[in-house]
Amino acid sequence: MRMLFVVCLFGGMISGIAATVEKFDFDSKGQAAWTGLYDAPKIVAGSHGKCLEIATARPVNREYLSPFFKLEPGKKYRVSCLVKVDKFKPGYSPLAINIRWYSAPEETCGFGGWNIFRVMREDKNKTFGWKRVEKIVKVPTWKGMEKKIRYGRIQIRNFRSIGQAKVDNIVVEEAAPTAKAANP
Q: How far apart are CA 85 and CA 66, in angstroms?
C-alpha cells in the first residue's frame, strides 16, 4: 500500500472488476514512500486520517511522486481520490494530479502521462471542500512501440501558485473495458 498527496483511493467491486492495483495511504507508509522533487512531502491531518498537503506562500512549484506500481499495457484503470483546495491566490494551478507512464521502475524519465484532475486559474471554483474525483485511463500502446508501459506513478503538483491543497485516499484499480468516470 502506498499513499499520494492528500488523495485517498479505495478498492472493491466497481464496474464488475475487483482487482485493486494500488492504494496510497499516508497513514500506513507516510511520506517515506513518496519522492519530493523540490522538497519533502508534508503530511498533515486530513478528512480520513493523514493526507498530503501542498502549501506555498509565494509562487513556487511543488511536486511529489508515488512509488512505482505495476500496470498492464492496453488495460483500463480507475484512479480516484479525495481533494481539497483551501486557498488560492493568483497563479497558474494550485493542484494537478497526473498518472505518469514508465516501462521499468529504474527509469528516471517516463513517457509523459495523463491528467487525472486539475484546478486552473481559469476555473470559476478555485477553492472547495473535500470532494471525490476519479478518471478512467487506458494504458497506452502504440504501434511500433519498442518498450511497453508496465509501470505507473501518481504525480501531485502545483504550478507557480500561492495557496493550499490537500489529497487523500488515492486508489488505482482495474476497470471494466466499458467503464466511464463518474466526473467527465
A: 20
- Beta bridge partner(s), residue 166: 53, 84
**138 CB contacts (<8 Å, ≥6 apart)?**
74, 75, 76, 77
| Sequence-ordered list of residues with C-beta below 8 angstroms from that of 57, at least 6 positions apart, any chain | 162
Strand partners, 87: 164
Q: What is the pLDDT of residue 80?
A: 92
Angle at 71 between CA 177 and CA 76, to 5 degrees: 15
Cell numbers standing for residue 177: 473495458
Least confident residue range of 14-18, 28-32, 148-152, 180-184: 14-18
Tell me the C-alpha distance between 27 and 12, whole Å.
20
Query: What does pTM read for this prediction?
Result: 0.81
| C-alpha atoms less than 13 angstroms from C-alpha of 157 in its C-beta half-sphere | 21
Alpha-carbon 114 to chain mean position: 10
In single-letter form, the type of residue at position 13 comes to M
What residues form DSSP beta bridges with 24? Answer: none
